[in-house]
Every structure is written in C-alpha cells, then in structure tokens.
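Question: I have long wanted to understand how a fold can be written as tokens. Here is the record:
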Amino acid sequence: MELLEHLIDSSSHIYAKTLSKNDYSWAVNPNIHQGGFYIPAMVRQSGFFPELLSRSDKPHIFDSVLNTKWLQINEAKESRLVWYSNKGPETHLTKVPHDLFKDLSPASMVLIGKSIEINNVYNCLIVDSSSEEYLDVIERLGLSPLFHSELIDVKKYENESRDLESDILQAILTGELDDFIHDSIIPSSQELSLLAQEAVMSSHDIVNFNPFSSESPGNIISDLVEVEYKIYQEKELRLRSAQIAKLLYPLRQPDGIASVAKMSTQGFSGLSEIFKSIRGARASRAGAALENHLSRMLSDGLIPFEDQVLLDNNKKPDFILPSASVYNQIGTSRKPSDVIVLTAKTTVKERWKQILSEGRKVNKWYLMTLDRTIGDRKLREMESEGVVLVVPENHKKSKETIYEKYSNVVSLEYFFQEIVSPNMKIW
C-alpha cells in the first residue's frame, strides 16, 4: 500500500483499468505480438495522455512517447502510446515491462498516475486480483468492485472532502457534533438496498425486477450492487469522519506537535475500534446487498423460495427453491433435480466449498457471484464437485473473465430461463 499512497500523492489524475485477457496474455504466449494493453478512446481523448501525432510516413498511425515508471520494480521505460486509426478507436500502450504482465489472474488491474511534478511522466502499478491488496486498492481509490475503466481526478476527491470537513467543523464549533453523528447513522442493509432499487428502477425505466421480463437480469443485479455501494460510501464517509473527529477533538493541544503525539497514543484504542467497525460493516453489507437484490428479483418473478432456512447438517443456504418442505421430500416423492439450492457470494475465494454442505440431498449447487477473478483451477474444481457458478450476463461474455469457455458457468438470465422456469411447472 505504500506504493499506492506514493502514486496518489504524486499524481494529479489516476487512470485505473481492469485488464482483459488480451491485455496480458501476450506476456506468456510468444505467438501474440500485441506487447501491451488497450487504452479506451475516451481516455485517449481526455487529455490525460500526451497528444498523439500522425506519422509522416504512415498518416493513419498516431503515436507519442511517454516516460513510464513501474513502481513495483523501480524500472523506467520509454513507453509508446499508439493508435492505428484504420483499425478502430482503441489505443495501445506498448513497451511495458514484460514480467509484470506474466501469469496475472483474471480481472487484475493497472493503475497509471500522471505526475504533478514532472511533465510527461507516468507512475504505474500492476495489482493482481488474487493479491491481498486488491480489494484494499479498490476501496482506497473509491472504485466499484465491478469497475472496468475509470479516470480519477485526485484533486476533485480532495475538494469534495473539504465540504465534509467544513460541515464537521461547524458541528464542533456549535456543540452539535453528537447530533451530526446521530443524523449520519448509516441506514440498515434493507434500507440501503431499497434506496438502490428505487434509483435503478428510475434509471432503467422499469416497474419491478421480474427476471423473466429482462434479457439481462444479472447486469441489473450488478447495477443495483454498484449503486448501493456508492450510496454506502457517501454515508460511511460522513459518519466515520464525524466519529473520528469526536474521538480526537478532546485530545488536541495548543502545541500542534504535542497534539499529534497525544492523539496518536491516547486515541489509538478508539481509532482501532472505529476501523474494526468499518471493516466489519463493509464485509457484512456487501454480502447482504447481493442477497437483498436477489431476493427482490425472486419475489418480483413470483418464484417460490425460502431464505436462511435450516436444512440437514444444521446448514442454512441463502435460498432454497421452492421450499424446505419440498427439499425434505427428496428420496421419497421428490428427485434432487426438483429443488434448487442457491447461495450468493460477492467474492468467492476458497469459501465456495462451504456450499457443498448446504443441502446434502441435492447433487448440484448454484452459486451466484459478482466475482470476476476466478481462475481455471478453481473453476475446474467447482465443476468436479457439482457447483454451477451463476454470473451477470456481461461477466459470462467479458474478455476480463475466462467464464465463456466453461459450461458450469451460466448467466443469471440462463439460470432463470433454463433452470428455474422449467421447475416452476412442477412446484
């Protein structure tokens, strides 16, 4: 994270991109001559990179040289930004360190910071999606876990924070900080999800979330989770900043240096509790959001289901379709295929194995996830255990994932139309 903080402190803007397979497969396949990664036309035209100039010998080629520094290996390169205007709108950033792009996990990211100190210098970081820092980087930059490509104005973020600073300072000076904190309490998970659902219904011009009325219910789920995440971020920043101010304000000293020493020691325990609360709340909210939106979709589709019901082995899957009573009839009047056990996890990692004990009477488990980072080994292992991964439609087809080639990875639209719908006739 030190390298990330250096990147932020030294940059006016940061470009973040989720890498597609084409963006890094050249590093391990000698038959691919790409030698770099794509930059979207919108970013090329934004002024973030130097202006591309047409070559006199080949006017359809526009390029520019930029100085890149790859922080992980402390290596400087003269990289080339090139646009072949006769081949389409996208641009290539080439002449980058080969080894940094080898063996990357799906949906890894590249960060490029435009230096505020030296003209035409760009500090770069590669963040592997399987690394421990991946989610921390996303949180630190305020990115959605589902982001694809984003240009971040570092100063704009600082200016927005100043507005909140002013509000908190006013509350301190007027003795109303406790009221400020009370009014900033983060809504419950259900309330946050409802706010997101109302926003998405308005933006998509829909009246409900019936999955049978949409060609891409999974993409709608992604939108819901992203919108809720943004709502949560705003409310979290407001509440937690005020809580920290309340903790540290009484510890201030006339001497600024003494204040820092006192706050860092006497305030440590309180700060630790606040940060512990932040991390716990984020983890529980993320999981609950996906479950809430999936539950709403099942309800709006008039699909019979029960959630968090106790089955054999004292396990509770997130959803069982149509009911626990039908599940309990498996082996007598019902077949395993008459019941669907569905679990929702925003990220998978190794926790997917837990679902194998959630309903031992079935021989197939469905796992809904928004995780784009799952690799070949894990997908093959899931397939051998009877686990079917259910993902948004754009994840199934995306070049950022490897899901398209796996039959045990299906879109949410396929799940509802080809798996749930036929069963509704017998439920």
Notes: The longest strand covers residues 61-70. The mean pLDDT is 90. DSSP finds 14 helices and 15 strands in the chain. The first helix runs from residue 2 to 9.
